[in-house]
Specification:
Blueprint (H helix, E strand, L loop, with lengths): L1 H50 L9 H53 L15 H6 L22
Length: 156
Amino acid sequence: MQGTIERYMRHTEDRRKEEKRSSEQEIELCKQETADLMNKMELLEASKRKYLGIGLGNCCIEELQQIERQLESSVSNIRARKIQVFKEQIEKLKGKERVLTTENAVLTEKCRIQPGKETSQPAGWNLSPSMRERGSGVTPEEVETQLFIGPPPSRR
């Protein structure tokens, strides 16, 4: 029984040492990864500053030309995306125009069907008697408008 206990103790002790070594290795690995990520961040920050035009004094001609090419490429990508968005908006607006044109045609046809009714004309239009006789074919140029300046006339 004593031998079994000793073997168990040696086994668990070996296992603890092994776990301690693996955790120390893992810590070292994490430290190395952290250092690598910090270096990458510094490089990215330096690159960002260069793209913004900050700290270009120590750059050689080749670096400046490379930055210029990258910026030109980025600008062309941005312009292409902008053009695509504008085209999509234009298509949406054209579709909306078609719908409104169709709706306008339907409403115009309804107005022609009911020529004798005053409600078929937009509110606020004052039509002369000669225009009323012609029906609903009134254009905005033929509408008589009145302009009142000052307080409205009193009602007595």
